[in-house]
Specification:
The structure holds 2 protein chains of 2 kinds.
Chain A: H1 2-30, H2 41-45, H3 48-61, E1 65-69, H4 70-80, H5 85-92, H6 103-118, E2 122-126, E3 143-149, H7 152-161, E4 164-166, E5 180-184, E6 198-202, E7 208-212, E8 219-221, E9 224-226, H8 240-245, E10 247-251, E11 254-257, E12 263-266, E13 268-275, H9 279-282, H10 284-289, E14 294-299, E15 301-305, H11 306-334, H12 339-353, H13 356-369, H14 387-413, H15 416-423, H16 428-440, H17 442-445, H18 448-454, H19 460-465, H20 474-480, H21 484-512
Helix pairs in contact in A: 1-7, 1-21, 11-12, 11-14, 12-14, 13-14, 14-16, 15-16, 18-21, 20-21
Chain B: H1 15-18, H2 26-30, H3 39-49, H4 51-73, H5 92-99, H6 116-151, H7 153-166, H8 171-181, H9 186-195, H10 197-213, H11 216-223, H12 228-264, H13 274-280, H14 291-318
Classes of the chains: A alpha+beta, B mainly alpha.
C-alpha cells in the first residue's frame, strides 16, 4: 500500500511539473507579448527609443526575458569591486552615437557587449534621435541594453526550486550586528513577562520565525515560505499564495505598543515584521516606531481571505449537497418510475441541460424575490448573504449525486445478493440501507476528497454573480490582466489539488470497500 | 353484422385450381422465418412510440427553422436603429406600440435599438453552429482515438499518461490562453473547445471498448480468427451506437453552456453569440423595464439546450437494441 502510494505521488508530481511546463510554454512562448501594453497608459505616452526600452523593461517584469541595461552592468561591476565608484560615474554616460564615445566608455561598452553576447544575449544599441543638435526628439535618448529570452527548461527549474524557501540569517545583505537566532520563552511583544515562546531572527527576512498568538491556529511560523509566483498586475509584488490567503476587509484597530515605546491604536500585526533595508532612514513613520529595520508589517483585517470565503461557501454547499443528494437519490431508486423519480429526473435534466449561468441567475432572481441579500458585502456580518451562493453551488451537485446514486442503486437492485437478502426475509428498508447503499456509495466516496479540496478554489460563476470576494475568479482575473506569475501559480495550485484529491479518493475508497486493495499481491 | 368470411365451396373451384404442388427444396428449408429486423427502422419505431417525443421533435424542428431559416427571411441588422434614441431599450409593449405588432418586436428592443427577437436567433445560430461543429470534430476524433486506445495496450499506457496530465490543466486556462493567442473569433472558439475536448470523449469510449472487448463472444470471435478490424466494426461498433448518441446529447448542450460561461467571464468570441448577449445584458437584468434583454437570451439558450438534450437522450434510448423488443 505504501509503495503503491509513493509511486502514485511520484507520478503525480511528475505530471504536475509537466502541466506547469505546458502552461509556461503557452503563456511565455505562444502568447503575443505586445498584448500587455494594450491597456498601458505609460506605453502610449512614450515614444521612440524610450518606448522600446520600456517594452523590454516591462517584459522583464512580466517574466518573459532577462533584460540588462548598460548602467546596471556597471553597477554590478562596482558591487563586485572591479571598478571604483568614480570610474563608474565617468563611463556611465555613453555617447549619442558609437562614434561619439570617449575611449574609456568605448572600452566598457565593448566589454559589456562581449560579456553578454557570450552568454547568449542580444545587445541592442539605439542611437539618439535629435530634433536639433541640442534637443532630443521626445523619448529619443540613446539606449544600450542586452536581453535574452528565458529558456523553458531553466524557467521551470528556477520556478520549482524557488517554491519553498527557508528563511535564514544570511538573508539580509547589508551589514548588521548580531546575526543569529534567539529563542525566548517570553515574547517581547507581550511586554516580555507573559510566558509565550518565540524564535526571533536577526539577519533573516522575517523577525519572528515562530510565535504564539490568540488567532487560530495559535502557533505560527515564518520559517518556511511558499512562493507560487509573484503577481504583477493583480496584486503588485505579492506572492500568489499570499494573495489567496491574505485577510480582506477593513482594519481592526487595537492598542499596539511599538518597540520604541510608542503606543497607539493601529491595525499593525508586529509579529509579521519583514526586513526592509534602510527603511528607518527613509521614513519618519518607521523610525518613530521601530528600533531595527524590520518595519514592514501586515495588518489585521476583519474578514476572511479569498480562500477562506471560497472554502466556507464550498464546504457548506458540499455538506448540503450530500445531505440532500444522498437521501433523494435513494428515494428515487426505491420509487423507480413513480412520481418522485419522474420529478427528480426532470430536475436532473434541467440542471444538466440548462447552462449553469442561466440557473444561477434564476436562483438569484428567486432568492431576491424572497428577500434574501443577492450580493455579498464583506463589511456586513449578516449570515444571510451566504445563503444564496451556498444554495446555488449545492443544487447542481445535488442533481449530480442524485443521478449517479440512482443509477448505481438500480444497477445493484437486480444483483443476486439482493434477491438472496429478499428471500431471506429482510425488510426493504434493511436491504436498501444495509446492502444496496453500501455498494452503490463506493464510487461516490471517491469524489469526496475532491469536493472538499476544490472548495478552496471557489466557483467562478457563482462568486462572480454574487460578488463573493473568493478565490474563484483569481485565475480569470489574472488571465484578463496578463499576470503570468499568477497564472502559473494558480495552475500549480489546481494541479496539486487535483492530484491529491485523486490519491485521497483512492485511499478512501479502499478504506470503505475492503475488496479494493492496492497491494500488488491481491492482483 | 354481416359475416364476410366465405367458404371455398362457394367459389365452386376444383381441387386442381385450389392447390398446386411445391417441390422439396433443401436450401429453402434452411431459411428461418422471422420478422424482418432493420436496426434503424426499429430505432425510429421505438422513438416515435413515445408521444412526447413527437412533441419535442416538433419543437426541435421549429427551433432549427427559427435559427437557420428565420434570419434568412427577416434580415437582422444590429445597428439599423442606432441613431434613433427612442428605439432603445423598449419593453415589448412599447416596441409593439412603436412598430405595430410583428413577431420581431415581441421581446422589445436592445441597447442599440435592435429587436431582441432577431438578436436572439442570430446569436443562437452562432452558438448552435459552434456546438455542432465542435461536437462533430470532438466525436470523430474522440471515437477513433478511443477505439485504438481501447484496443492497443501500448497506446493505452501512453494515452492514459497524456490524459492524466492534460486533465490537470484547468480547462478554462487552456481555452482562455488559446483565445488570447489567437484573436477571439468563432474559429478560435471552435479550436479552443476541440483541442483538448476530444480527450475526455476518447477516454470514455476507451472504457466502453475495454468493457465490451473482453466479453465472451468477442473472445470466441477472436479464437475463430476474425480480424481485429471486423471485430471492431461488426462486434463492437453496434454496441457503441446508443452510447455515442447519448454522449452527443450531453456534449452539444455542454458546448453551448461553455460558450455562455466563457462569454460571461469575458473570454468569449467577438461575434454576438447567445453567451455574449447574456454577458452584455447583465446590467439590464437589474434595470426596471430592461429585463427582457437579459432573460430572453437566457430563456432561449435554456430551451435550446433542454430540447437538444431530451431529443438526444430519447434517441439514445431508442438506439439501444435492448429496447427494440
Amino acid at each position: 500500500m505504501t509503495k503503491y502510494l509513493m509511486k502514485r505521488i511520484l507520478h503525480g508530481l511528475v505530471s504536475v511539473v509537466i502541466v506547469v511546463g505546458i502552461v509556461m510554454l503557452l503563456i511565455y512562448s505562444a502568447l503575443d507579448r505586445q498584448l500587455i501594453f494594450a491597456m498601458d497608459p505609460t506605453y502610449k505616452q512614450l515614444g521612440n527609443n524610450q518606448k522600446e526600452a520600456y517594452m523590454y523593461r516591462k517584459w522583464e517584469e512580466y517574466g518573459y526575458i532577462d533584460y540588462v541595461p548598460y548602467t546596471e552592468y556597471l553597477l554590478e561591476l562596482t558591487a563586485k569591486g572591479e571598478i571604483t565608484e568614480e570610474e563608474r560615474q565617468s563611463v556611465a554616460s555613453f555617447g549619442k552615437k558609437p562614434e561619439n564615445d570617449s575611449e574609456d566608455v568605448a572600452k566598457y561598452v565593448q566589454r559589456f557587449t562581449e560579456a553578454y553576447e557570450a552568454k547568449g544575449y542580444t545587445v541592442i544599441r539605439r542611437d539618439a534621435k535629435m530634433q536639433t543638435p541640442k534637443k532630443y526628439v521626445s523619448g529619443g535618448q540613446q539606449q544600450l541594453f542586452a536581453y535574452k529570452d528565458k529558456p523553458l527548461f531553466s524557467r521551470l527549474v528556477g520556478y520549482f526550486t524557488g517554491i519553498f524557501s527557508v528563511d535564514n540569517i544570511h538573508y539580509v545583505q547589508e551589514d548588521i550586528e548580531n546575526r543569529g537566532l534567539t529563542f525566548t520563552l517570553h515574547d517581547p511583544l507581550y511586554g516580555g513577562e507573559k510566558f509565550s515562546p518565540a524564535i526571533i531572527g536577526n539577519g533573516t527576512k522575517h523577525k519572528y520565525l515562530l510565535y504564539f498568538d490568540n488567532k487560530f491556529p495559535f502557533v505560527h511560523q515564518n520559517l518556511l515560505q511558499i512562493n507560487l509566483g509573484k503577481s504583477y498586475a493583480v496584486n503588485l509584488g505579492v506572492d500568489v499564495f499570499e494573495t489567496m490567503t491574505m485577510p480582506q476587509g477593513s482594519y481592526v484597530l487595537s492598542t499596539v505598543a511599538y518597540p520604541t515605546g510608542l503606543v497607539e491604536e493601529s491595525a499593525d500585526d508586529l509579529h509579521t515584521a519583514v526586513y526592509i533595508a534602510g527603511s528607518r532612514q527613509s521614513s519618519m513613520v518607521s523610525s518613530d516606531r521601530f528600533t531595527d529595520d524590520y518595519t514592514s508589517v501586515s495588518t489585521v483585517k476583519n474578514a476572511k481571505s479569498k480562500v477562506g470565503f471560497s472554502f466556507v461557501i464550498g464546504i457548506l454547499s458540499s455538506l448540503m449537497a450530500y445531505a440532500l443528494g444522498v437521501p433523494l437519490g435513494i428515494a428515487m431508486a426505491r420509487k423507480k418510475d413513480r412520481l418522485l423519480d419522474k420529478l427528480g429526473t426532470l430536475y436532473i435534466v434541467f440542471i444538466i441541460a440548462v447552462p449553469s449561468l442561466a440557473y444561477i441567475f434564476l436562483f438569484k432572481a428567486i432568492g431576491g424575490a424572497m428577500g434574501l441579500p443577492t450580493t455579498f458585502d464583506i463589511d456586513k456580518s449578516s449570515y444571510l448573504m451566504y445563503v444564496l451562493p451556498i444554495v446555488s453551488l449545492a443544487l447542481p451537485s445535488v442533481a449530480n449525486l442524485m443521478k449517479w446514486l440512482r443509477r448505481y442503486m438500480i444497477d445493484q437492485m437486480n444483483s443476486d445478493y439482493v434477491k438472496f437478502a429478499r428471500s431471506g426475509g429482510l425488510s426493504e428498508n434493511e436491504i436498501f440501507t444495509k446492502h444496496i447503499l453500501k455498494n452503490a456509495i463506493i464510487p461516490l466516496v471517491h469524489g469526496i476528497p475532491g469536493t472538499v479540496l476544490f472548495a478552496i478554489t471557489g466557483a467562478i460563476i457563482t462568486e462572480r454573480v454574487y460578488v463573493v470576494p473568493g478565490a474563484g475568479n483569481l485565475l480569470t482575473k489574472a488571465i484578463n490582466m496578463y499576470d503570468n506569475g499568477v497564472i502559473v501559480g494558480v495552475t500549480l495550485f489546481y494541479a496539486l489539488l487535483s492530484i491529491i484529491s485523486l490519491i485521497l479518493g483512492d485511499v478512501l475508497m479502499s478504506l470503505v470497500d475492503p475488496r479494493i486493495s492496492f497491494t500488488s499481491k491481491a492482483r | 353484422m354481416k359475416n364476410e368470411q366465405m367458404t371455398f365451396d362457394e367459389l365452386n373451384l376444383s381441387d386442381e385450381e385450389l392447390f398446386s404442388r411445391v417441390d422439396h427444396n433443401d436450401l429453402e428449408s434452411e431459411k428461418i422465418t422471422a420478422p424482418r429486423y432493420s436496426y434503424w427502422r426499429s430505432v425510429f419505431r421505438v422513438f416515435f412510440r413515445k408521444r412526447s417525443n413527437v412533441v419535442i421533435l416538433t419543437l426541435f424542428t421549429l427551433l432549427l427553422l427559427f435559427i437557420y431559416v428565420y434570419p434568412a427571411l427577416v434580415p437582422y441588422d444590429q445597428f439599423a436603429n442606432l441613431m434613433d434614441s427612442s428605439a432603445k431599450h423598449l419593453t415589448p409593449s412599447a416596441a409593439i406600440e412603436k412598430y405595430g405588432f410583428s413577431l420581431e418586436w415581441i421581446f422589445g428592443s436592445g441597447k442599440s435599438g435592435e429587436s431582441t427577437f432577431g438578436a436572439v436567433w442570430n446569436g443562437a445560430r452562432i452558438s448552435i453552429s459552434m456546438a455542432f461543429i465542435c461536437a462533430l470534430i470532438n466525436m470523430t476524433v474522440g471515437i477513433l482515438v478511443g477505439a485504438v486506445w481501447g484496443f492497443s495496450k501500448k497506446v493505452d499506457i501512453v494515452m492514459t499518461e497524456v490524459y492524466n496530465i492534460i486533465g490537470n490543466v484547468p480547462y478554462i486556462l487552456f481555452i482562455s490562453v488559446l483565445v488570447l493567442i489567437f484573436s477571439a473569433g468563432f474559429w478560435t472558439m471552435v479550436f479552443a473547445l476541440t483541442v483538448t475536448g476530444w480527450l475526455s470523449i476518447a477516454y470514455f469510449i476507451r472504457t466502453q471498448v475495454i468493457i465490451i472487448r473482453d466479453r465472451e463472444y468477442n473472445l470466441a470471435s477472436r479464437c475463430l480468427g476474425t480480424p481485429i478490424l471486423r471485430i471492431a466494426t461488426k462486434n463492437i461498433l453496434p454496441f457503441m451506437t446508443s452510447i455515442v448518441v447519448t454522449l452527443v446529447a450531453t456534449e452539444i448542450p455542454s458546448y453551448i453552456s461553455y460558450e455562455v460561461f466563457l462569454s460571461y467571464i469575458g473570454m468569449g468570441m467577438s461575434e454576438m453569440s447567445l453567451g455574449k448577449m447574456i454577458y452584455e445584458a447583465e446590467n439590464a437584468m437589474l434595470t426596471p423595464g430592461w429585463q427582457f434583454e437579459f432573460w430572453t437570451p437566457v430563456a432561449v439558450a435554456s430551451i435550446i439546450t433542454v430540447v437538444l438534450y431530451v431529443v438526444g437522450q430519447n434517441l439514445g434510448d431508442a438506439s439501444d437494441p435492448r429496447t427494440h423488443m
